[in-house]
Structures are given as structure tokens and as C-alpha cells.
Amino acid sequence: MKVVNDPRVTVPAGKVSLEGEWVAPKGPRGIVLFAHGSGSSRHSPRNRFVAESLREGRLATLLFDLLTADEEVVDLQKTHLRFDIALLAERLVHAIDWVSRREPDLPIGLFGASTGAGAALLAAAQRPERVAAVVSRGGRPDLAGTALQQVQSPTLLIVGERDKQVIELNRLALEQLQGEKKMEIVPQATHLFEEPGALEEVARLAREWFAAHLA
Questions:
Q1: How many CB atoms lie within 10 A of CB 203?
Q2: Residue 77 has what pLDDT?
């Protein structure tokens, strides 16, 4: 099935519909779904930067909101939904199933940032036959809990060198992962990878990981 660019898509997720953007290069080798971090959305400039880099590596990308517009309004006040990892993972699983129906021949990768990394790993544990690889950027993989031991997808954890607390959380999560796994520490980078060249290094590492595993 030929993949067609469809910048505006609506992803069905149980009782709700989620807004997203689907963009594919010619002859994609796979598709990467983005799970945004706490308080973020498909408009995240950092994830959009990484997505553009992945497309240069012949990977399609789906950036979509894990919360509806109404839920985002509520979350801005109470900030509880962004930390509901089970809910976010459930939405991500719906997106995986939707992509699988739409493009059954494309291998799927997940890119999770911050709390979105926990949701990505929980979703990977629930869909091992469809998720071919996972990448976490400055993530909280520990939020996936005991599901980490069920993740079969090759997983890359990327952390900034100066993000000390998150490094330790990632090391603990790395010990629990049972499949192929690796942790990369970006020199001099903080949690948001705002330093010159830091986000470019994240994009390079992610692109190489997905290129190796979405074949």
C-alpha cells in the first residue's frame, strides 16, 4: 500500500478522537509515532525537529495529541492527566492499532519524550508484535513500572549529561528492560537539550536506531 502524506488526521482512540499530523517521505521504511511529554502536544518544537530528521531517513512520522482539546484545558489547571501514564499508553495503543490497519506493512517505532517515554514503553509491552523499536528522549521510562520487564522492542534511552536525576532513573529502568537495550548520554546537555548541537545529536541517535530496527 502506498503511503500518502496526510498532514491532518484524526486518530480514533476509544471514546475520543485525537488530532494529529501524518507526513511520509517517498518509499518509507517505517513509521514513528510520537508520545509527547507532560504538558506538550504535537506542536512541540523539539519533537517536530526530530520528526523532520527521521523523515530525512525515509521514515514516516505521526505526531498527535494524547489529550483532546477539552482535556488539555482541564489539564492546564489540574496537571493530572499528563501524568496518567495508563491513559496515555491506552491512547497510544489505539494509535498503533489505527496505523496497523491503515498501513499493515510498515514497521512501527515509538518516540517518547519525558513522561511520554513511560507511555511509549507501556504501549510497547502491550503491542510487542507491532512495535519494532522505542526511543526515549529525556524520558521517564521508570513510569512504565513493572511493564518494563515485558518490553521486547529494542529500546534506546537518550539522556542529557547534566540531567543527573533523570540519568539515574534511566539507569534503573535499563536494568529492568529484558530485550535489546542501550543508553546514550549526550555531553553537556540538560533535560530539554537546548544546548547547541544537543538536539541534533538526539535526532541523529534516534534516526540511526530506527534505521537499524525498522527494516
A1: 22
A2: 65
pLDDT at 1: 39
CATH topology of domain 6-213: Rossmann fold (3.40.50)
Between 78 and 63, residue with greater pLDDT: 63
User: Within 13 A of 201's CA, how many CA atoms are on the CB side?
Assistant: 20
Delimit the domains of the chain by residue range: 6-213
Taking the mean position of all CA atoms in its chain, how far away is CA 106? 16
Share of the chain above pLDDT 70, in %: 91
Tell me, letter by letter, the H, E, C secondary structure of the chain: CCCCCEEEEEEEECCEEEEEEEECCCCCCEEEEEECCCCCCCCCHHHHHHHHHHHHCCEEEEEECCCCHHHHHHHHHHCCHHHCHHHHHHHHHHHHHHHHHHCCCCCEEEEEECHHHHHHHHHHHHCCCCEEEEEEECCCHHHHHHHHHHCCCCEEEEEECCCHHHHHHHHHHHHHCCCCEEEEEECCCCCCCCCCCHHHHHHHHHHHHHHHHCC
pTM value is: 0.92
